[in-house]
Specification:
The protein is α+β, with helices and mostly antiparallel strands. The protein folds into 2 domains: 210 residues, Protein Transport Mog1p, Chain A (3-Layer(aba) Sandwich); 175 residues, Mog1/PsbP, alpha/beta/alpha sandwich (Protein Transport Mog1p, Chain A), CATH 3.40.1000.10. The chain is built from 7 helices and 20 strands. The longest helix is centred in the N-terminal third of the chain and has 19 residues.
Length: 403
Amino acid sequence: MLIIRYNVRLVFLFAFVIGIASCMFSDSVYAQARDLDIFERFKKPMPKLNLMSEEEFKKATKLIEKQPYGQKALSYSMRIDKSWSEGIDRSVGNYMLSEKLFLELNSFYSKPTISGRSRIEVSALNIESNLTAEQWYIKYILEGGYTTEGFVVHNTDKVESLMIVMERDYSYYLRTLVLLNGNKVLMVKYFVPVQYIQEQAVMQQMVINSFRIKHKEQRKYAGMLSYRFLDIAEFKYPKNWKIYAKPVRNVDRLEVSLLNTKKSVGLDGSSSVVSSSEGRLDVLVVSAAVKNTLVEEVDEYKRKVESNGILIGEKIKEDYKFTYWKNIDFAITEVYKGIDSTDSSSEYEFWFTILVGGNYYYFVTLLTPSRNNMFATWAENTQSYKVMMKEFKPMVGAFLERD
């Protein structure tokens, strides 16, 4: 392969070129912009409790197995206090899951007290985005204005939190479990009146720990379309992004840009108008036979970005759990801070990926509002970017020798 011999040097070239900007701007521009990462603001250890043995727990509880509305994707099991009663049975009937409002599946109640009842609510909604459970739940917390006392991430499809909430003048310790199953979010909420948390905290944790999804479904990527660079490469992108392709003059350099635009309803209520851009993707496919070296191509892109008023700053520590296509020879992704030179209060992030496959380099970059400024938009953009990288594949033409 024409490109393989460059692979060892790619990391150093990439880091060197982008690192120039980081040295220039990180100390001055970002001195006042560094805030605690949004993930660190919410992630807190859960309290350590002396739990019952499994045998003791089973004696104090009863097994609940449900298939709400007859849907396998919603079926679950868990153990609850044997003295509790069940709310309305929703094992049969019609239902409709929305993307905005949770549909209650089942509820369970303790005996009444002067401080309110302990209760469990199991609910669900559809998720049409590619967010992880952690991203989805942080978005939910931000929109609700909640503050967590504890927050742990078990895996990409499971998170758990503890918080204090108010309901009708009563305070509750609320332990929440969020699980993704296919394109559905299942949420389990266990409320305990604050006055009784010491005696019920162990049961609260063990009941939440006992919750199981009975029919696990595979996650499907939501709303992705395909785009091809002739017979050279193919990638998927979110269907709500608008694509701008430059005319193809030769197969040595192919470019396309995509914009995530926010739409709002017009004054007459009958039309949608584009009000702002909430993200930009650029894909550049370059033949290894061009005159520019790889480092020159990266440097040229950096200059283009800066000429548009965006400064590239320090590197961000990111969890790079990327999966790449099997015939990609080499891949690297890095994330950097960015800031509008005309508005220091506007923060961005740059996600850079260089791929090597066949006789081509592939540069894929994302400009997105920062996670601390616009978390929901950032999460949607970056998760779609990860899916895009997973599905980005060189095609037959990438491996052909061309004149």
